[in-house]
Amino acid sequence: MLDIIVCFLSGIAAGLGTGFAGMSAAAAISPMLITFLGMPAYEAVGIALASDVLASGVSTYTYKKNKNLDIKNGLVILITVLIFTAIGSLIASHVPNTTMGSFSVFMTLILGIKFIIKPVMNTSKNLDSLSKSRRIISSILCGILIGFICGFVGAGGGMMMLLVLTTVLGYELKTAVGTSVFVMTFTALTGAASHFAIGGLPNLACLITCVLSTLLWARIAAKIANKSDALTLNRITGIILIIISISILAVELF
């Protein structure tokens, strides 16, 4: 019963993060499953990435419906991220649980603080001001880093992608979020498939609960996000992640 409760709560946090800011569900699910259920880190990341697939997919649909999605310019980064997500997943299978678990918790806290202290607001940079070759090179380089991190720990990929799209490539915030969840749908699918192929199927009850809970709350959050201002979205997501990380650290310490 405890497993189901923890998975449902982690799904709520993950869904809100995905729907509001295009973040990977693993930023919330991985550390919670590792800490509260003592689940092997590799298995927890696999479940988190699987939860990301439908949650990001339904968020993508909502953002596209509201015309906040740029598929064309996101294809280059998508292809690069897909390749390096699989590579990161393979390397992660040989890393100790403690290393992956600690990194996930640390990343969750940093992301939360980042959203509150320095929110990602509308950029004045114009995407069209960048040359085509520069956009391609920037997308490839950023895709390599994002894909590796997504496959390795599943955490931070969405946030990094959001920063790349707004600061490097010049996207407006909501379009950046929509494009981010579009890419995350496929990176999560690749990462989850790689994890399950290498490590086998995880606990099915936990998997199903996380997937359904994340899907539900991502749908709700995406609807709200498309009607809210950027600062509100950043603050809500930041608060959610900080609460998660502090709770996990408290359990580990006491």
Describe the structure concisely.
The chain is mostly helical and 254 residues long. It contains ten helices and no strands.
Write the layout of secondary structure elements.
Elements: H1 2-21, H2 26-36, H3 41-65, H4 75-92, H5 97-117, H6 132-152, H7 157-168, H8 173-199, H9 204-225, H10 230-253
Helix pairs in contact: 1-2, 1-3, 1-8, 1-9, 1-10, 2-3, 2-5, 2-10, 3-8, 3-9, 4-6, 4-8, 5-10, 6-7, 7-8
Write a concise keyword list for the protein shown above:
about 250 residues; mainly alpha; about 80% helix; about 0% strand; globular
How would you characterize this protein structure?
This protein is mainly alpha-helical. It has one domain. Helix content is 79%, strand content 0%. The chain contains ten helices and no strands. 56% of the residues are buried. The mean pLDDT is 79.
What overall form do the CA principal axes indicate? globular
Order of helices and strands: HHHHHHHHHH
Name the beta content range. under 5%
Give the count of structural domains: 1
| Average residue pLDDT | 79
Number of strands: 0
Instruction: Kindly name the structural category.
Output: mainly alpha
Poorly predicted residue ranges: none
- Determine the number of helices (DSSP H or I, runs of at least 4 residues): 10
Distance between the termini: 23 Å
